[in-house]
């Protein structure tokens, strides 16, 4: 792929000049083929609200086998409503979502609303509840009271069904947020050499192809001076994104706005993780690069690849940034004590991934009383990283290896580094049996999932 080489021969500090250099091929030796046109960026198709009532968003999601093209290759997969990614569901905080899953697969399925605090019976897990059998349907309905960059996917036969393409975005926006000239939703997925064999490519990153919304390194054409906001979601089974881009500001996480924007050197998003970022293009092209990173952490070999180009025309100066209603907040003090301890162990050799030595579903259920905030301590003793995801409630990161974060950090999925310990504060305000698991789907499938009960 020529564009990979063009966009990514170096650290990414000076992508524009590299692209220009690379494209200027007239004077160089024989070039077999012209560089392929990069596709135009397109958001996932928006779902239409089938209910005219104010404050209610209603739709049907029909899961069925579907063939679609990813990075130039036809994939025999699954899709919601014939779309990969599935329909983009966008609502405002306070709205009620009513979604009917019609299961047209030849196997059972469910829908889990990742990032949304829903009642337990709407959580889409086959624990104390039956999955939605082939040829039947189920209606999920719940209120969405917090802004989230969330997503939906099956939580039954999860590794295979998500791998085959069953996922979509659930965006809950705050009406107080400003509106950008370009608002992008990027579902980033990683694929190995043979997409039809699935995405299990966390280690073989050199062969990986990242797509956003099924497109390989698409380009968004903008005017210089435009405001560009992007919701970025890592929906891959086990690929890590380690993102950088000229002038990129991180303004939100998976649970709404950050207390204040940040400009990290790298934005690492593990499987299941999301962020909201803002770009202010002037006349310079911007490439959103992902750097080599695997379940074993940052890697010194391989080259970054561009997953999105933002190409401006015109000569207006950069947009100063939108007026987001940030509310600065310090991390909560650690109340001390540990209600629940999760120790992560396992290795690639055995494929046996464990929490506290147990493999789901043969697990000890930790029980917390409703309404009493509690500390969960997650300790990773394995040689790979794990994105820890809790259903039903978001949590605050109190500390990472004893060090509190720079600002209040609310998550539903957080990456636990190798040998790292994180202390997480949960409100314990949602009654139910909540899955707590690694979101590297082969790890979850290999046993790395447990149950946290609030009663
Ligand atoms: Cu894991």
Provide the helix percentage.
under 10%
Mean pLDDT: 89
Number of helices, counting only DSSP H or I runs of 4 residues or more: 4
What would CATH call the architecture of the largest domain? Sandwich
Spatial sequence of strands, sheet with the most strands: 10-9-12-17-14-15
- Please give the CATH class of the largest domain: Mainly Beta
| Residue fraction in strands | 35-45%
Attached small molecules:
copper (II) ion
- State the end-to-end distance: 54 Å
> Per CATH, what is the topology of the largest domain?
Immunoglobulin-like
Judging from the principal axes of the Cα atoms, what is the shape? Answer: globular
Structural classification = mainly beta
Number of domains: 3
Largest sheet: 6 strands, mixed
Poorly predicted parts:
1-30, 200-207
Q: Write down how many β-strands occur, each being a DSSP E stretch of 2 or more residues.
A: 32
Q: Helices, strands, pairings?
A:
Elements: H1 2-8, H2 15-23, E1 56-70, E2 73-80, E3 89-92, E4 96-103, E5 112-114, E6 137-143, E7 148-153, H3 158-163, E8 168-173, E9 182-191, E10 209-212, E11 219-223, E12 228-234, E13 241-244, E14 249-253, E15 256-262, E16 267-269, E17 274-279, E18 286-290, E19 293-294, E20 297-298, E21 305-313, E22 340-347, E23 352-355, E24 366-368, E25 374-380, E26 386-390, E27 395-400, E28 410-411, E29 413-416, E30 421-426, E31 432-438, H4 441-445, E32 449-454
Parallel strand pairs: 1-4, 3-8, 9-12, 11-21, 22-25, 24-32
Antiparallel strand pairs: 1-2, 4-6, 5-7, 7-8, 9-10, 12-17, 13-16, 13-18, 14-15, 14-17, 18-21, 19-20, 22-23, 25-30, 26-29, 26-31, 27-28, 27-30, 31-32
């Amino acid at each position: 792929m020529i564009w990979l080489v063009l966009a990514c021969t170096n650290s990414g500090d000076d992508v524009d000049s590299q692209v220009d250099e690379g494209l200027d091929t007239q004077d160089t030796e024989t070039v077999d083929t012209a560089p392929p046109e990069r596709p135009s960026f397109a958001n996932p198709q928006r779902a239409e609200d089938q209910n005219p009532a104010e404050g209610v968003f209603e739709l049907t999601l029909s899961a069925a086998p579907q063939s679609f093209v990813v990075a130039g290759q036809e994939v025999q997969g699954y899709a919601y409503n014939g779309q990969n990614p599935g329909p983009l569901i966008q609502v405002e905080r306070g709205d009620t979502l009513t979604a009917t899953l019609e299961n047209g697969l030849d196997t059972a399925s469910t829908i889990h609303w990742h990032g949304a605090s829903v009642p337990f019976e709407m959580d889409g897990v086959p624990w104390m509840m039956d999955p939605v059998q082939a040829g039947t349907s189920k209606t999920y309905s719940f209120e969405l009271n917090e802004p989230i960059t969330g997503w939906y996917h099956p939580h039954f036969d999860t590794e295979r069904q998500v791998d085959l393409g069953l996922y979509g975005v659930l965006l809950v926006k705050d009406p107080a947020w400003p509106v950008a000239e370009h608002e992008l939703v990027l579902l980033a997925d990683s694929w190995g050499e043979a997409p039809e064999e699935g995405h299990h490519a966390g280690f073989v990153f050199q062969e990986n192809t990242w797509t956003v919304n099924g497109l390989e390194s698409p380009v968004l054409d903008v005017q210089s001076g435009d405001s560009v906001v992007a919701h970025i979601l890592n929906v891959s089974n086990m690929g890590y994104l380690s993102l950088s881009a000229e002038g990129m500001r991180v303004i939100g996480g998976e649970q709404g706005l950050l207390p204040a924007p940040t400009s990290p050197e790298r934005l690492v998003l593990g499987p299941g993780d999301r962020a909201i970022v803002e770009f202010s293009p002037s006349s310079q092209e911007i490439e959103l690069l992902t750097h080599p990173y695997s379940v074993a952490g940052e890697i010194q070999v391989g080259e970054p690849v561009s997953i999105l180009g933002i190409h401006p025309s015109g000569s207006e100066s950069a947009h100063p940034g939108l007026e987001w209603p940030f509310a600065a907040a310090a991390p909560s003090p650690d109340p001390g004590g540990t209600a629940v301890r999760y120790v992560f162990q396992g290795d690639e050799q055995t494929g046996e991934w464990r929490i506290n030595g147990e493999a789901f579903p043969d697990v000890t259920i930790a029980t917390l009383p409703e309404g009493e905030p509690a500390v969960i301590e997650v300790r990773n003793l394995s040689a790979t990283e794990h994105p820890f995801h809790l259903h039903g409630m978001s949590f605050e990161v109190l500390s990472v290896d004893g060090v509190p974060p720079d600002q209040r950090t609310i998550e539903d999925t957080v990456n636990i580094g190798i040998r790292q310990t994180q202390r997480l504060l949960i409100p314990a305000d949602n009654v139910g049996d909540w899955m707590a698991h690694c979101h590297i789907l082969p790890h979850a499938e290999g046993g790395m999932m447990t149950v946290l009960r609030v009663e």
